[in-house]
Amino acid sequence: MNAITVQTHDDSQARLERLSALSQRLLERARECGASQAEVSCSEETGLNVNVRMGAVETVESNRDRGIGVTVYFGKRKGSASTADLREESLDATVEQACAIARYTEDDEASGLAEPELMAREFPELDLWHPWALDADRAVDLALACEAAGRADPRVANSDGASVGSSESLSVYANSHGFIGRERGTQHSIGCALIAGQGEGMQRDGWYSTGLAYADLESPESIGRRAAERTLARLQPRSAATGEYPVLFAAEVARSLIGHLLGAVSGGALYRRASFLLDQAGQQLFPDWFAIDELPLLRRGLRSAAFDAEGVATRTAPLVSDGVLQRYLLGSYSARKLGLQTTANAGGVHNLMVRANAGGFAELLGGMSRGLLVTELMGQGVNAVTGDYSRGAAGFWVENGSIAWPVDGITIAGNLKEVFQRIEAVGNDVDTRSHIGVGSILVGKMIVAGEE
Length: 452
Fold this sequence. Notes:
Elements: H1 12-32, E1 37-53, E2 56-74, E3 77-83, H2 88-104, H3 136-150, E4 158-175, E5 180-196, E6 203-211, H4 220-233, E7 243-249, H5 251-264, H6 267-271, E8 292-294, E9 317-321, E10 324-325, H7 332-338, E11 352-354, H8 361-366, E12 370-378, E13 388-399, E14 402-415, H9 416-421, E15 423-426, E16 436-437, E17 441-449
Parallel strand pairs: 7-12, 11-16
Antiparallel strand pairs: 1-2, 1-4, 2-3, 4-5, 5-6, 7-17, 8-9, 8-11, 9-10, 12-13, 13-14, 14-17, 15-17
Helix pairs in contact: 3-4
GO biological process, one term: proteolysis
Organism: Pseudoxanthomonas wuyuanensis
GO molecular function: metallopeptidase activity
């Protein structure tokens, strides 16, 4: 990377203190209005985003957002209201509106704060705060350098542009159990999307890098060059004969398979009985070597946190061990609906790591005699209730362990329960750009629908 500039003046702690004091005032106001329980979320976010295309600046956007959310409970009745206005009269009106809503709602036996004994009491330093003193001129220079590196090959005839973004967020969550949690985080990114070829033979692809610290990003030039390599590799695609073949999901799309698992074991889908994995906790869903761990306290993790959206303490825990689903993903509401206890997943999962049982991408590719390498998925053809899976795909046809030609215009299909069971290998080539850490995934057999 080029020289890194970090902020020298950092007032984030003082701003967090102000948000904390504000949350306490709102909780007290809710108590005065008769609420039996209350919770408050306060947040601030600032950011800069720049987009360039064909060597010219398209957009420069600077944002500064603020949000205050108040939820109150009158017994088992709940009301919520929000505002971005910090004037006292607006804050008072927000609390009063939440209380008015609660008074007119029906009782819900599952509503209420998470249990007080589950609140987080330890707040380790997770290394999530890395401000970048990025101004618009510097951001434009980086984006232009990224795109120029990608367009250096004359076969790259066009561009969808390059972008640079940087954001800082501060948040405070507090509730009437006496819990107050403060978080601050940064995220930065550089990306590029390019177009190669002519007429109906044009192909588009790209690459991006993201991280909590600028030092974690790939250089703009390497991102542009990789975007060009990926785009050029897709020129002159062919289809594939319909049949059942091994399918290798490249790491950047493999996490979508894990995403379907997460959706199916989330509390909301389960208590609504809208999941193909109903009543599957304790059941074997994957091969007996397969494992997924949740690592919420990982230093500099993209989704690290000492507490969830309800203040419940997070902890390192398996989601899948020896191929067996160990638990669901629950907040306090969905847990009560299911007669279970929260798993500290209100607001979603934290960092997940799928354990590898194989080497890198080259090893997995070389082990395929004939099949499909998927590098892009399209469409939303997944039935969450039945697990039926059918999505458009593009990538490369593999013969004798080597890439033979690019393919597109195909569909891959199966049922996710069967797909999970047919996973033969997970590579160690983890794509670090997501809080779902997984390498390439080889599925032994799926339906590939192409030309007859």
